[in-house]
Amino acid sequence: MDRIRSYLLAQDVETLASLLLEQAERDDALLYRLQRLTAVAAGDVDSVRDSLRSRLTEATEVVGFMHRGEAGAWAEDVDAVLDAVADLVSAGAPAVARDLAVYALERLDAVFQDETLAYEECSYLPSRARDIHLEACKAAPPDPVALAAFLFEGATGRDDLLFFRAADLYGEVLGEAGLAEHRRLAEDALASLPPPEGGPGTFDGFTAARLQLVQMLDAVAARDGDIDRRIALLSIDLPTPDCYLHLCKVCLEHGREAEALRYAEEGLRVLARRGYDHRLAQFAADRHTAAGDDAAAVAVLWKAFERQPSLSLFRHLRRIGGEAARDRAIAALRQAVTKPSKAQADWLAPVGLLIDVLMAEEMFAEAWQVARAHGTDDMRILRLAAASEACCPAEAAAAYVARIETLVPQGGNDNYAEATRLLGRLAGLRSAAAHAAHVSDLRQRFKAKRNFMKLIREA
Fold this sequence. Notes:
Pfam families: DUF6880
Strand content: under 5%
Shape: flat
Largest sheet: none
Oligomer: single chain
Helix content: over 70%
Distance between the termini: 44 Å
């Protein structure tokens, strides 16, 4: 490409024009592009606007039901028109591009009203139209107050994910006047909502709208560097662990260690009836550790582990509490395996978690004992086998043999490939004679499965 570019730069204008025209005669897309650029250069932007608006209408139209298999081609057609709209920004008609991007958003919103049409293949199109709108606004800034109203309407409508942090995306274009209007609209809307019912950790009929407006105002406050305002906003409604965690991280990022820990502990307390969230517990533990209080950190983690244990919590406990914490956690899980309680319905089956913990500690013999005594799923057995080949070759080999006996009768090339891979691992876990006898047996019993036989020969 560099060589071609150097050649083209050395040509005169007439030669380049001839090359483009010759190609345009064979390439409709290039021809239409040149026609648009020519019209814009001649000042005939109205015809370009009308033409692209008609093409957007046609491209975004859905007649009847659009099947999943048609979604990709439909999206490509729409994207091609958006390419043409984007061209207008650099061609000298950014205001036209801005209007057409808004029209595209309206058309796409109408299509996606039917959620069955919101296929993954089409999901990028609204963001693409929004990005064109943003670039057009940068090239030809509209009235900032009117833009603020448009963005607020988008942020509180179906396009909320496109515009809900408009201050981040459009702050440069909005300027002080636009940001002030954006803030006013959001503050008025938030003031019109009733305060949260039931306090932190609860939902009411206005929670979603409240959180949406808080996010919008938080973006403005973050742009202003007003940390006090951010904390006040983010603490208005705290129905979920994610809300608490976000507030904690904002406090921490601005050196508010004490507030970060206070909100984390509050979240653990008020959300306890829904089970401890391990992320909040780990955040609080890390803050205690940073303050030099490992005992408090272990206490927080242990309380969370008792209510809803997880491998992540165990690793945190192990890192801070050492072997004492490890032994206590393993003992608790063994107790849960042998004498399960009603509370265990709320969390992972203790057998699987106990095996995972023992594997994390490389206590492979103990893990195999638990697996033999209480059973577990095939995938966990295979992970245990792969991790313990060196110390427990007999157990690992038995697991691989059992898996092969499951895979091959089921058929299918993927199963055959997996069985062959496991055969390869078995070769290092037993004598050559035992391995040869097993392979011979497989060849005899499954000789009709030609693809499997081919894989064995190749291996």
